[in-house]
Design a protein that fits this description.
Blueprint: E1 2-7, E2 16-21, E3 29-39, H1 41-47, E4 63-71, E5 83-86, E6 89-91, H2 97-100, E7 111-112, E8 124-128, E9 133-134, H3 141-144, H4 150-161, E10 167-171, H5 177-187, E11 190-195, H6 201-207, E12 211-214, H7 218-222, E13 228-233, H8 241-246, E14 248-256, H9 268-272, E15 277-280, H10 286-299, E16 305-309, H11 313-322, E17 328-332
Parallel strand pairs: 10-11, 10-13, 11-12, 13-14, 14-15, 16-17
Antiparallel strand pairs: 1-2, 3-4, 3-8, 3-17, 4-5, 5-9, 6-7
Length: 335
């Protein structure tokens, strides 16, 4: 079978439209005709081989929404014609301890959708049935794509560590952070947004933040001392981590989902004396993704997107790399 796909031939080069051949559909696989696909910063990282794990040629795109066109004979729970989504992972071993305990996203053999596997910047994409998610009624298919990676990445720590009575901080109001603010507000939390861009203050409040603090204002951060129960960092830049940890309440938690490459320095006594936790997580398990989609549908939580035709994929990547996107980019299939 042949697909049309935008292919990254090598690092840091524009993608080109090609016809690619794929083998027979595996027994537990599902094939999806792509309608929309978000552009995540992880796509940029893989395109540019920033993590040193990219495999070329690569078909990127892992925030996928489309309709099921075929299912293997052993695929379960998915029907031809369903509107579905696929995220960062498109498979896992299904027999290791993490998989058997419901943490398939922590499987050592989890298959990233865009590394050694064809992603969603194509006419079709394939995935193991356990990583294909029916889209709930009420979620706009054209806008829902970024929920399947960015959305669940910030929803997971909220579902794991936050209560509706908690005070939650979100560092960074960008592709991840703006969804974290929306989810935390819908969760019932008092939300403090942290951003280095003063032109985002009012927008952060419209997204659901109760107050906004500049990450450059150490004095303002200091005034928050001991007030936040959970602080989610969505950025990949160096911060005043001592100040940030100082803003946490006793038994508070700093949770990292932004792939900052520099080490995060933490003084032991700042953790010990208030029993502070520091943690991190990747996207989410299939159960977490399904729960996130249900919550998003019930509370009308959707990302704020800019749309491009998929034929403008290289322009869309340039827009994302410029830092000017507000706040996610979705490519609409126009093959």
């Amino acid at each position: 079978m042949k697909y049309r796909a935008w292919v990254a031939k090598e690092a840091k080069r524009p993608m080109v439209l090609e016809t690619v051949e794929v083998g027979p559909l595996e027994p537990e696989e599902v094939e999806v005709a792509v309608e929309h696909c978000g552009v995540c910063h992880s796509d940029v990282s893989v395109l540019n081989n920033e993590w040193g794990i990219s495999q070329y040629p690569a078909i990127l795109g892992h925030e996928i929404v489309g309709r099921v066109t075929a299912t293997g004979p052993k695929a379960k729970g998915i029907s031809v014609g369903q509107h579905v989504g696929i995220g960062w992972n498109s498979g896992s071993c299904m027999h290791c301890r993490p998989c058997m305990s419901g943490n398939q996203n922590l499987c050592a053999q989890a298959q990233p959708t865009i590394i050694g596997h064809g992603g969603g910047f194509a006419t079709q994409v394939r995935s193991h049935w356990a990583w294909v998610f029916p889209l709930p009624e009420g979620l706009d298919p054209a806008e829902a794509g970024p929920l399947f990676c960015g959305g669940v990445t910030v929803f997971s720590p909220l579902a794991s560590f936050a209560r509706p009575i908690d005070r939650v901080g979100v560092i960074g109001i960008g592709g991840l952070g703006h969804m974290a603010v929306k989810f935390a507000a819908a969760w019932g939390c008092d939300v403090t947004a942290f951003t280095s861009s003063e032109n985002k203050f009012e927008e952060a409040k419209r997204l659901g933040a109760n107050q906004v603090v500049s990450t450059k204002d150490s004095a303002a951060i200091g005034k928050l001392g001991g007030s936040l129960d959970l602080l989610i960092s969505t950025v990949n830049v160096k911060l005043d981590w001592d100040r940030m940890i100082g803003a946490l309440a006793p038994q508070g938690r700093l949770h990292v989902v932004g792939a900052v490459l520099e080490p995060i320095p933490v003084a032991a006594f700042s953790l010990i004396m208030k029993r502070i936790s520091v943690s991190g997580s990747p996207t989410g398990s299939p159960t977490e993704i399904a729960s996130m989609l249900d919550f998003a549908a019930r509370h009308n939580v959707l990302p704020q997107n800019e749309h491009y035709p998929m034929s403008s994929i290289n322009e869309a990547f340039a827009r994302l790399e410029s830092g000017k996107a507000r706040y996610r980019i979705v490519l609409d299939a126009d093959f």
